Amino acid sequence: MLDMSMFRDHADVIRADHDRRGLSHDSIDEVIRLDDEWRRSRYDADQLRKQRNEAARGIAEAKKSGDESAANEILERVTDIGAKIDELSLYSDECLSKRDSLRMGIPNILHDDVPVGEDDQKNTLLSLHGEKSEMKFEPRNHNDLIELNGWVDLSRGAKVAGSRFYFMQGDLARLDMALQQYGSDFLIERGYTLVQPPLMMNREAYEGVTDLSDFETVMYGIKPDEYYLIATSEHPLTAMRMDEIIEPSELPIKLVGVSPCFRREVGAHGLSDRGIWRVHQFTKVEQIVICNPDESWDHHEDLLTNAIDLWDSLGLHYRVVNICTGDMGTVASRKYDLEAWLPGAGSYKEVVSCSNCTDYQANRLRMRYRTSEGNSAVHTLNSTAIATSRALVAIMEQYQNEDGTVAVPEVLRPYMGKEILESL
């Protein structure tokens, strides 16, 4: 969330950002009003405490001098002060709770270079990578390829767990594992520390990394323990330093997380989202950076470079887009997406999301670093390296042959020990 100083000293910046997003100023104004009420009630309570302390001294002096009448007179004047203090304290707590609850839903300040637009149709193209495969046959979509080769059993997955769950088997399952290993090795060589995170988080930690009022609908909650299955390793890896003061010598912290991810994916989806494209469980290799605020935009470009170099090495055709205001969520200040070309679907679809969240998550997580002027919020960044199920779709569709076989990208052949995926 935004630091409270932004509302007190730079409310015009927040209002201008809401104008870019096409949002009302009502929540901003209410946060400021509640903050004023909170500060006023705390001040009034402090003044009453001073009166009570002065009265206590006056009563003690009067009794010491034997003037019971004066002592009783003072006592009568301050009899109800305790009740008033309790009332003001309760009111100030209510104002604080409402203020911060509203503040949690107010989005991050967007970077100046975020394009203005209503939805994803207004995202702007940054670059194109690789070449579209010149196929002299009608390309199959990944649904046809997994069925033809027997690599995914959707019906039995639905039988034991429900729709959008699946059994992956044979060489496609091996290729999934190869992608995990290759993506991890790729980032480890660039100075990232490999971490396998817990697959569940408590509510407090989850509220620190995302807007649960919006994101909770796509997450799996676990009752009665009040945990959530993680939707991405970004969330536990970012939250792992919550409530900590980080020494400057530790920064930047660079992590690569590998984990299963769980999402409900509610709502209707198109034909191209079927198969293993939009599923309830998948594996992801994720990049995380926690850094000094002065360096975060350089790290954002580094994360994008890592993703580009990784996907270039797979020999895939894709594009990089700059996400517009209408397609941005609550947390990120700027976001790039990589969208892979799917010949069978005849469209580009998102495979990587690369975000700078500035101090938004750090403020919610109370995550600071030590400075000579005091403790200050770090910046947090995240980027997909490989969401394996979507990478598999891109590989299948771009590396397919006319007979329905699929070639293995060259960089993955040492992990697979073969050049062509075998059917079951």
Summarize the structure.
The chain is α+β, with helices and mostly antiparallel strands and 424 residues long.
- Proportion in β-strands: 15-25%
Structure class = alpha+beta
The overall strand count is: 18
CATH superfamily of the largest domain: Bira Bifunctional Protein, Domain 2
Low-pLDDT runs? none
CATH fold description of the largest domain = BirA Bifunctional Protein, domain 2
Per the principal axes of the C-alpha atoms, what is the gross shape?
A: elongated
Overall mean pLDDT? 93
Oligomer: single chain
CATH class of the largest domain: Alpha Beta
Domain tally: 2
CATH architecture of the largest domain: 2-Layer Sandwich
Largest sheet: 8 strands, mixed
Number of separate helices: 15
Rg over CA atoms, rounded to whole Å, is 28 Å
**Separation of termini?**
50 Å
Q: For the largest beta sheet, what order do the strands appear in spatially?
A: 1-11-12-13-16-10-9-4
Helix % is: 40-55%
Plain-language structure description:
With 424 residues, the chain is of the alpha+beta class. The protein starts with a helix and ends with a strand. The strands form 5 sheets. It has an 8-stranded mixed β-sheet. Strands 5-7-6 form a 3-stranded antiparallel β-sheet. Strands 8-14-15 form a 3-stranded mixed β-sheet, with no helix packed on it. It is elongated, with a radius of gyration of 28 Å. It has 2 domains: 4-104, Serine-tRNA synthetase, tRNA binding domain (Helix Hairpins, Orthogonal Bundle), CATH 1.10.287; 120-421, 2-Layer Sandwich (BirA Bifunctional Protein, domain 2). Helix content is 43%, strand content 21%. Strand 14 and strand 15 form a beta hairpin. It has helices at 4-9, 11-21, 26-64, 68-77, 81-104, 142-149, 154-161, 170-188, 203-209, 212-215, 234-239, 296-313, 360-365, 388-398, 413-416; strands spanning 124-129, 152-153, 167-168, 193-195, 200-202, 221-222, 227-229, 245-246, 253-262, 281-291, 318-322, 334-342, 347-356, 368-371, 374-377, 379-387, 406-407, 420-421. The model has no long low-confidence stretch (mean pLDDT 93). The longest helix has 39 residues, at 26-64.
